[in-house]
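User: Hi! I'm working on a homework problem where we have to compare a predicted structure to a textbook description. Could you give me the structure for the chain below?
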Amino acid sequence: MRLAGLMLATAFLAAEDGDTKPDPNAAFGMVRVVDEWGKPIPEAELHVQRFELRAPGSGPGVGRGVPKTNHCDAAGQCRVELPPAVNDGNLTASKAGYYDSWGGHDVVSILENLVPGPGNPPITLWLMKKLDPVPMVARHIEHLAIPALSVPLGFDLERGAWVAPQGQGVVADLIFTVGKNVVSDTEFSTTVTVTFSNPDDGIMAYLSEIDPALRTTRLDMPRTAPPEGYFPSWSKSAGHHDGMWTGNRSEDGFIFRVRSHRVDQAIDSARYGWIIGDIGIDPGNSNEANGIRLTFAYLLNADPHSISLEWDGTNPVPDGDPQKLRYNP
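Assistant: Happy to help. Predicted structure tokens:
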């Protein structure tokens, strides 16, 4: 997820559908489904779906029929029929109590080099076990208007609103300070800086590629929040320069800690969570006094004594609230 991605990568393969003849040029491969330590996951389910090809430049293929499901054996292995690399489709694995897989870069690399017949290298899909899923406040903040420039503005993550007097929020979890520099109608920039209310609060960028176990899993964040490594501020700029819009980035996400409370030398309580992908900045038009909008999605652990970043899908945000996050990353 991520918001990105919260977007699933697809791997290029297919299965024989009931209404098609076997492909004489098909390759055969063995798929291994393992946990993050490489231990086989017995009797996992492997889902293979073929896509109808489209003309070049007309977009991705369209799913054809119901995905074929293969049941892996006690050693977590499934033998599958794979088409040549010119075909298109996807491959996922699932098992109750684990996060589903989505393919991953290593899998795509193998599939792009398949040869007809047997002898292809094994394909490994990692599944991460669900350990401590918890309720999360899950919101998607879209086009949040900046009420004032160059002054700290507190934002309440639980309520999804600016704190008084700008809104109905109570706790300043994130403090946004937004500045705008206008040179001309075509040269202007907006800078957003995020700080926090408490000394132990903070934020860190997260890159899933550094964790091999996350290469094929749908869990976008680690299962628990790190105890250290948080920075007291974060900033980003966006605007218009040399005829181009600037500031577009694609982050895996950010882990944050807010409402932290320290007793003696230890943090007694805190609220942990994660921002899904990047914080989007619409810098507005140069001739506006501000005109700036922010867009971001996040999950906030509801328990101040839990460090879990696993969401069980329970969301206290009411169904009628337009900010309610409506998918599970």
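For your comparison, note the following. The first helix runs from residue 105 to 111. The two ends are 4 Å apart (CA to CA). Good luck with the assignment!
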